[in-house]
Design goal:
Layout lengths: L3 H34 L7 H24 L1 H25 L2 H18 L2 H7 L6 H9 L5 H13 L10 H18 L6 H5 L11 H5 L4 H28 L4 H17 L1 H11 L1 H18 L6 H28 L6 H29 L3 H20 L13
Helix pairs in contact: 1-3, 1-4, 1-6, 1-7, 1-8, 1-11, 1-12, 2-3, 2-4, 2-16, 3-4, 3-8, 5-6, 6-13, 7-12, 11-12, 11-14, 11-15, 11-16, 11-17, 12-15, 13-15, 14-15, 14-17, 16-17
Length: about 400
């Protein structure tokens, strides 16, 4: 029988390759939409399609993972992650907005489904070490900070950026995800089955009852707000950088440093969350998100934007891992998929709304300063909410 650590190693390695595809989608989603349609005012629509598709996919995926197991669902996400970039590449080659939107939506669905790996990883650990377990798998995503500049950067060096120029990078992204799918086959024992060793499982409760448990609403606010604000700003960062007259290749530097902030210190973050507590970690993380967004109003250089995006990623790392770990603890093995899936659904829909609204604010209200102000205000509100509400004592919960 394989040791659980080897199973987590396979999950982490799968995310290594998935992260290559996602970095391209984040860095070039807005640019691709504008290049294919020629309409700048809809720059927020690409990220919105990506996030809405993810929201629509993750709820059913979470329920399916409770019924059939985590890994069959996660592998389906990898298959979608191969298809999405190929469809987007076809849209670029044919200059077809419909295909580009379909491809971005498929990429979004793939991302949300594959990221159910983080909750699956937490299940492999005892409750008091679940933040550490989640951090081991998420550490794999930091490689996206390396893949982007090394692989995608040279593809854009000295080239113009019409729709046809974007075809080859999107095809390269599909290859990354294909390797991730092959690696996922190395996870033989399903995390849902491993988790049953740590709790006596009771009958699964309806989602409406799970949401009323003490602490769930606080953790949900922490998860949804940290993800939505981070993703909304991240998906617009590439276009904001171009708006500051930076070269398109510089976008990969900004996004890479952001990914380092999200995942580079994740192993330390997992241990820190287990030590200082989840509510405190959420408050600190949301506070960092607010500070980072405020900085975007003043810093327009590549170095300044990179620093702010690093802070945005680090704040997300603390708050989101803490919130999701708490949600895993507050549900039994047969309930976690639907609870985490519902959290991801709300997160993605909220992020999509913020991306759309952010695009309107950026193009119609004066650029990056009002955009930064709105994002900062939302982070401060979420931080205050979490700080004012307690979480229950840590415990493996399977019953009401």
């Amino acid at each position: 029988m394989r040791h659980p650590l080897s199973e987590k190693g396979a999950e982490a390695l799968g995310l290594v390759f998935q992260s290559g595809m996602i970095q391209l989608a984040v860095a070039l989603g807005t640019v691709t939409i504008v290049a294919v349609t020629g309409v700048k005012s809809i720059l927020g629509l690409g990220p919105a399609v990506f996030l809405i598709a993810g929201a629509l996919a993750v709820g059913p995926a979470g329920r399916a993972s409770d019924r059939f197991g985590r890994m069959p669902v996660i592998r389906t996400g990898f298959v979608l992650g191969i298809s999405g970039p190929c469809i987007t590449a076809a849209g670029c080659a044919a200059v077809s907005p419909a295909l580009v939107f379909l491809g971005l939506g498929t990429c979004g669905a793939a991302q949300s489904i594959v990221l159910l790996s983080r909750a699956a990883a937490a299940e492999m650990f005892p409750p008091e070490r679940r933040a550490r377990g989640m951090s081991i798998v998420l550490f794999g995503v930091v490689s996206g900070a390396i893949w982007g500049p090394l692989v995608f950067g040279p593809m854009f060096s000295g080239r113009t950026f019409d729709a046809h120029d974007l075809t080859v990078p999107w095809l390269a992204a599909a290859l990354f995800t294909a390797v991730g799918f092959l690696v996922s086959l190395g996870v033989r024992r399903d995390p849902r089955d491993l988790s049953r060793a740590y709790v006596t499982e009771a009958a699964a409760k309806p989602l409406t009852q799970i949401l009323r448990r003490p602490g769930v609403s606080t953790a949900m606010v922490g998860a949804v707000s940290s993800f939505a604000i981070m993703a909304g700003v991240m998906n617009l960062a590439g276009y904001v950088a171009v708006g500051h007259h930076h070269a398109q290749g510089s976008v990969f530097t900004i996004i890479s440093i952001h990914i380092v902030g999200m995942y580079g210190l994740v192993l330390f973050a997992g241990d820190a969350i287990d030590r200082i507590g989840r509510r405190r970690s959420m408050v600190i993380g949301l506070g960092l998100i607010a500070l980072a967004n405020a900085g975007m109003a003043w810093f327009a250089s590549i170095a300044g934007m990179s620093l702010c995006m690093f802070g945005l990623g680090l704040g997300w790392c603390l708050s989101y891992i803490a919130a999701t770990t708490e949600l895993v603890d507050l549900a039994g093995p047969a309930e976690r998929g639907r609870l985490v899936g519902f959290s991801d659904l709300l997160s993605s829909f909220t992020a999509a709304g913020l991306a759309l609204a952010g695009g309107v604010v950026y193009t119609g209200a004066g650029g990056s300063v009002p955009l930064a102000g709105v994002a900062t205000g939302l982070a401060v509100l979420a931080c205050a909410w979490v700080a004012g509400n307690r979480l229950p004592e840590p415990r493996p919960v399977a019953v009401d």
